[in-house]
Specification:
The protein is mainly beta and 165 residues long. Helices cover 14% and strands 47% of the residues. It starts with 9 loop residues before the first helix and ends with a strand. Strands 1, 2, 3, 4, 5, 6, 7, 8, 9 and 10 form a ten-stranded antiparallel beta sheet that branches.
Length: 165
Amino acid sequence: MTSTSVRPPARRRLGIGAVLAAGSLAVTGLAFAPAAAAVAPTTATVTFNCGFYGGGAATLTATQTGTSATITVSSAITAPLPLAADSISSTLIMTKAGGGTTAFTGTKNPAMATGANVVVGPLTGTVASGDSLDAGGGSLVMVIFGISVTCTPAANQSPGPFVYE
């Protein structure tokens, strides 16, 4: 008696099984993956006094991915001359609730025309879950054309500190 069913070779059956098992593991992994960490609020304002260079309200925009965080500062300081992209070295010092500070640093900035508001960032820093960071009590230092511009906050940021997950 001859069988009329055709069985795929053992090698092919093993390959299909392995693909199905890998797919199941991938879907299961996605279901149990941790949610992306978030910071709240994502934007805040603070008024900086930069001495001879001016000052005014600045908008801070924060993001977080795990322990890595970024802050972009859109300031009221105007560019004295055209500025090339990535030509400003910046350090934003934020105060931690409970004491201490966290630094956000970088050399990222868009190209800016004379008189444009200076924007720096994203500046990168490291945060821990539960960190509460405020620009008030800290400082912003930007090195533009070799000149160090130090800005100090007039008050804490509004609506409140950045709280990291």
